[in-house]
What does this fold into?
Amino acid sequence: SDCTLARTCLKWTRLRLLVSETSSLAGRSLKTWWIPFVQFEFAGSTIESSTQYGTFDPVWGQKLVIHGQFPSMAEKFVIRVKDSDEIGGDDLIATKLLK
It folds into this structure.
């Protein structure tokens, strides 16, 4: 490697994510149904899963890739589960921050 102790070595790389499933979204709202999707944010990049229609127990089974510079100690990895809303903005169901 051409990295020395005097400088920091950053690499552009891919972070592979597996969006699996969630359950019991019904208890989080009075809504009769959800249109959920998952959003990932890291180092200025955002990627979203597919949208699951009309379910409280979505199963995605989807692989996603997000690109960024690693290591990036100042960045947070943000995971959001949202309800797709065609009128107005998407509704936030849950958020998780990883440092």
